[in-house]
Amino acid sequence: MRDWPQRLQKHYRRWQWYRRGRLVSEWPDYLAARHNNCGDERLSRYFGAGTFDPRTPMEEVPLVALDFETTGLDPGRHSIVSVGIQPFSMRRIPVAQGYYRVVRPRRALSSSSVVHHRLTHSALAEAPRFDEVIGEVLERLAGRLVVVHYTRIEREFLDAAARHYLGEPLLFPLIDTMAIEAYLHRRPAWYQRLRGRRPASLRLHPSRERYGLPAYQAHHALTDALATAELLQAQMAWHYDPDTPVGALWE
Amino acid sequence: MDIEQLEIRQHMGHFAPFEYLGDEQLDRVAGAVEVGYYRAGSDILALDQEINELCYIRSGAVEVSRRGGQLFDRLVEGDVFGASDLMRNRRVRFPVRALEDSLIYFVPAELFEALRGENDDFADFVETGGVRLKATVDQHQHDNRTGTTRVRRLIRRRPVMVDADTPMREVARRMRDENVTCVLVIDNGGDHDTDNSPCHFATDDGVVHRLDGIVTDRDCCTRVLADDLDGTVPVAKVMTTQLVTARSEESVHEAMLAMLNHNIKHLPILHKRRPIGVLHLGDIMRHETRSSLYLVNTIFNQPGLAGLIRLSGDVTAAFTRLVDEGADATMVGCTMAAICKSFARRLLELGEAELGPPPVPYSFMVLGSTARDEQTVFADQDHAMVLDDSFDPEQHDAYFLALARFVSDGLAACGYPLCKGDVMATNRRWRQPLSVWQRYFRDWIEDPDPESLLNSAIFFDLGHVHGEAHRIEALQALIVELAPRNPRFLAAMARNALNRTPPIGLFRTFILEKDGQQNDAINLKRRGTAPLVDLVRVHALACGSSSSSTLRRLEDIARTQLLPEGVNDRLRYAFEYISMVRIRHQALAIEQGEEADNRLRPANVSSRERHHLKDAFEVLSHAQKFLKFRYPMPSSSGRRR
Predict the structure, then answer these.
(1) What is the interface size between A and B, counted as CB pairs within 8 Å?
(2) Structural fold of domain B494-639
């Protein structure tokens, strides 16, 4: 951290203060260790692709937006029903490289979640199980830094699925566009409360609105992945230099 | 599996040139775009950089400049840029900067070239882009292109779909909550043997549904309420099963025919057998009348003055757009007058809402060019109030003065300058009961005095705007009744119509006057359209025409023997031509960021135009000579009454 440019020092510290206690620069070591003692070949290949030096400028990092639709919010009880993956860079989002799969959940669907993402029982009954597509998914994530909106869903559901099907945990660095929004909008919460203002909504679509991004139909994993990628581009354009080190943003 | 981005496809399918593409072509575009976000103020294309993509604005706005940095154009959502550079040498000639936060879709050059080769409409659009670029929004260019516009462009939202066993009560609630007038009924799963029957479709998650039927709000009335059914009856019992549908790539025209042939108002639109929306007959009508009614609609939706003032910026845009699209003088005049009248009408509604209902009935009329439907961008406001005869100045005038002030201040704030001659309802003289107005007209016509008529000629062009029309019609009837019988009045009007004369023509950079003098600019209104309007008005009054627009007056005159053979047509031609030059001159001034005026400098006129103008002035000049001869001042014996 000492060899960071002066003007970023303050920023970096504030960032750390905001999410103190989280893993930051141990990521490269962690991934390397997992690569060496990993039982599953697919996981091992993924970890082998490694990650980036925390000092790499954002504009040079290949990114990939990841979105799951799930049957609920609890990774212990609910499971993934669809996966959307959209590779991109700070400059462009090539839509042609988008990836979308419906997967069969481990447990039955509740009827309320059917309404939510319009995936019905019969569609899911014919879909592959998550462990049949996890190889494809990991291949698309390898060598890229994953971007999500709200870390908990994607990280914990993916981890839970990996533990269930592969018997091993699956953790990797993430950029969370929601955390970035929270950092920008929620920090002076006491001040906002003082002035009687409601804190800004951090959900994906209200966040996009603040950057003039169009409203998309929500709850389709690939559309939401695209929406997340666009949101990160917008956040970077507004709040960060293109050479901001990746370590300042990942979790 | 199909992983096309529906969001992208749907948006692009609404805008030219992508709206001309077939479904398969559009799929290719939507699958190949790259997306980029640009913060307001950042460069999208820099001068001389290499360009390998056609750029499409998904949201936001951009500014296109010339090489030297002057503004060339502003583009908004749905517009494309970069096409001309792509076709030339793939170097950016017109740099582009984001004016607002913008999301841009980039279409690769190879695909762009392929589409140009495959689709003539697409090619036409991008190849004539130089001209089209001038119109900021392309939408209005396709008014009369119902034949080629694809039906998916009119779809505004996804259809509301319900399962066949949903109770009608639930369906009615969905209609209310989603603000739609119909829902589609689908059956989940079903038997897969019939997968290929036309009413089966798969959603993007691979589920097969069957489109069973449609239920409209009218069905709720005629098949539920009228049949004494209650809200628990399943929708399947009520729906229409013999579905008439259209494919999204069919033309609007075809869709319209389908609706007319089957006498239906709702037409489900399918893309690859999947319903993507429901077209309502009203959508087609809105599409057809868009350019003239769009702005007017918006005017009537404004909840307050601030909204109207904001809209006034669109008026100039609508004007230049009309001119750009090659509308003739009549269309431009009608549209601009309709917009002005709508502003007045909305202001009166707002005024009444603020001040309370009027104490006695009244009518509000516009005068002059607005009444004649010959308005250019922002004409001076000329209006008056005709009140009910029960009007009592003591009690009621304060209300009407306040209302008149509200309207005239509002119009002024929207860009219509106050009338310099004070012909406005705020002037007590022009805010009178019908009986007083009738006296005014009697005085003007039966006891004419050229001096006073000079200022009241404007009252002979009147049009109803708000309140009951019958008072205005009574005044028009009075004019038609009295004017033809009063040669002295006609003579006085004719004399006034000769006050302003046209020049001989334009010569190089000068205006050639009859006395040999040379001016370097000509006021096209004072020396061209206005004397023509005056002249035609005299003939129209003489033949008892009740029309107020000059061209319609000429039609009325043509039915009489008033004018020699052929003169009528020549007058019409002259009027349209001079009006058009004037309108184009103003549009050009606006586009260059100058004040729109009526002063034309011959230096800016092409030699062909110069010729035509000279002809038009000659027609006017001859007609004026004829007017003098046709309506002589009667000898004193004519004063007997």
Answers:
(1) 92
(2) Four Helix Bundle (Hemerythrin (Met), subunit A) (1.20.120)
